[in-house]
Amino acid sequence: MHACLLVADVFHNILEFVALIPPDQDNAWRGYNNRYTTNPFLAALARTCRTFSEPSLDVLWRSQFTLGPLIRTLPPHVCSEEIEDASALQPGCVTHHLTLKPPIARSDWDRFDYYAAKVKSLGYYMFEFADQDLTNWLHHHFLHFSRPVTRQTMELLCLCRRRPFILPNLRRLRLTCGDIQLLRFIPMMLGPNLQALSIAFYAGNILLDPTISNELYHSVLRKLLESLPSLCPSLTELAICTEQLPDVANAALSFAYKSKHLLGCFIAYIPTWPREVLLHLSQQEHLRDIYLSLDEDTANLTWLQSVRYPFPSLDTLDMRCPSLKSCATLIKLMGACTLRLLKFEAAEGPPPTTDLQELFVALRTHCSVSTLQSLLVEYYADRSKDGGRTETSQEEHSFTGELVSPMYAFSQLRFFRLHTPFVSFLNDQDLRDMADHWPLLIELRLADDWEWFAGPFDTTWAGLAYVAWKCPQLIEVAIAMDMRADNVTETTSQEGFRPNRHLRHINCLDSVMCDVEMCARSVHAFAPLVWEIWGHGWGEWDEDHASKRPPDQDPIGFYETATSMIQETHASEEFAVAAKHDPLEDMNPWSALATTRPKPTRTWIQ
To answer: What are the DSSP calls for 337-354, one per residue?
Structure first.
């Protein structure tokens, strides 16, 4: 039999599919996210028989968010657990506080060692979508720290364990805000098998914590980065996703410069990178992920022209530069590339139309149309200056369908976000073209957190409904439109139309508001499970007269009312579809009520 047809391999593929099933799959309101730390289906398979137990446990324990579940495997006389209701911090949150009670015999570690060898990733969820690599580190909430590990518990664990590594087979380590108190114990997590290290907590969280001294942060983290080549010889990916102090960032850059087998270098929030470091990284044949920060001296990229085809294997590019011209120039210098995730940030003003057009044309010319999945173009202005206003003009910042048309060739695109201010001249036909060319869209956000500056607009309910129909996986959309056009039936009446049951969030930006009932009716016609609608209305906002506005000009009250009306309409439809109760059926022993199927049981492993 061929190796690919072995029973063990087939069963392993089945387990990988089961791992993707979310625990709340029956919840109609759930959205596209990966924030799960358990999987009851894998636990049930592990308890089915001995043949299924070992491979199921391998997948179940492969990724752990904290060390709490592993410590929980110690015998009850060694580890005690106190349950605390933490719903005041976050609804539905229950915290399990663990306490170790030494002495711990050598036999007490048998179960701990068995599961510790299966942990390959720490600080990660059960699974994480590949097209969210740039934002996965942000998805850490207090709700998932159900079993936090305190500093006292970690001290006792390291003291009683008496081994150099707690997790011998650890491959990936992500340090989040919940691991700040364990900063001094990070070396116990490192080992010769570690391949990826990610730091995802802010320096301010440590410096403002009274229980942690500033000397500890400076000494431990900097020295840790300096000793990575000797502690972790297999380390090929280093990511610092948050802002750190200069000495820590420089130590990370030094590691990237000296590493010979680097696959990922994501060191964010550095004003500028040394030119010799950039030149060294551009010649790495196996480098796949990188964050580039350019200033005025390095933005022209003339120093890179001596390298033929820089960054030949790049997959993920996050780039911050004064203008988008540098981004387009880099794409041209790379030549034929297979980029998958792209994020560009302009630092010196909102990008004009010419820069966006040059970037889109460069991507269409040099990037493979079968690989690009995510494109984010951002500009963050200092909202504290000039009242948060940004100067835009129709001549320099116009946004049309023709401008974005070069991107239509990327049929695998899943995220398209332009976080930049512009004057929109889009119409419903432009929205239809986007939907027809990007059927796999999950997020479509145009001028998110900004305004379109040209209302009333030519985009209406019909265009938005068409996007929701042709992009069935769409979760979030940010589009301004003229809500007064009651034309949603132009799309919903077409043959084969189906409502989008995945769309959860609609950001209407500075849309021209209409009657609230018409808004709720239009949204419910193409997206009945929308969870939230919001926007900031059309026109100037005046705090002094906000309470005196009529309902059709109060964006907060308008969108809250529309959202509640949509949810009430969906709830009433579900109730109407449900079977009605008949008292005579109670006396019939063979009725459907008397012969209902038993509720499915799920096995949960604590």
So the answer is: B---EEEEEE-SSPPPHH
CB atoms within 10 A of CB 591: 13
Helix count and strand count (H, E) for the chain: 20, 19
pLDDT per residue over 167-200, tens digit each? Answer: 999 999 998 877 777 778 888 888 899 999 998 8
CB 507 within 8 A of CB 478: yes
142 CA to centre of own chain: 16
pLDDT above 50: residue 474: yes
Residue 149, token pair as written in the block? 């590990």
State pLDDT tens for residues 296-305. Answer: 888 888 888 8
Long-range contacts of 523-526 (CB under 8 A, 24+ apart): 523/562, 523/566, 524/566, 524/569, 524/570, 525/465, 525/488, 525/489, 525/492, 525/499, 526/464, 526/465, 526/468, 526/469, 526/488, 526/491, 526/492, 526/499, 526/500
Amino acid at 496: G
- 458 residue type, one letter: D
What are the Cα distances from residue 35, in Å, to 31, 94, 126, 137, 143?
11, 16, 8, 11, 10
Question: Which residue type sits at 249?
Answer: A
291 strand-pairing partners: 318
Sequence-separated (6 or more) residues with CB below 8 Å from residue 596: none
How far apart CA 92 and CA 191 sit, in angstroms, is 36
pLDDT over threshold 80, residue 419 = yes
Of 256, 269, 270, 263, nearest to 228 by C-alpha is 256
User: How far apart are the C-alpha atoms of 26 and 14, rounded to whole Å?
Assistant: 20
Euclidean distance between the first and the last CA atom of the chain, given in angstroms as a whole number: 40
CA–CA gap between residue 149 and residue 67 (Å, rounded): 7
Residue type, 76: P
Cα–Cα distances (Å) from 586 to 550, 589, 599, in that order, read 53, 8, 20
Instruction: Please tell me the distance from the alpha carbon of residue 351 to that of residue 367, in angstroms, as a whole number.
Output: 21
* Rounded to 5°, angle at Cα 27 from 21 and 31: 70
- What pLDDT score does 597 carry? 43
Give the three-state DSSP class for 407: helix
Q: How confident is the model at residue 601 (pLDDT cuts 50, 70, 90)?
A: very low
Report residue 35 CA to chain centroid gap: 9
Domain ranges of the chain: 19-170, 455-471+480-573
Task: Show the tokens assigned to 606.
Answer: 């604590």
* pLDDT at residue 602, rounded to an integer: 35
**What gap in Å lies between CA 392 and CA 126, rounded to an integer?**
44
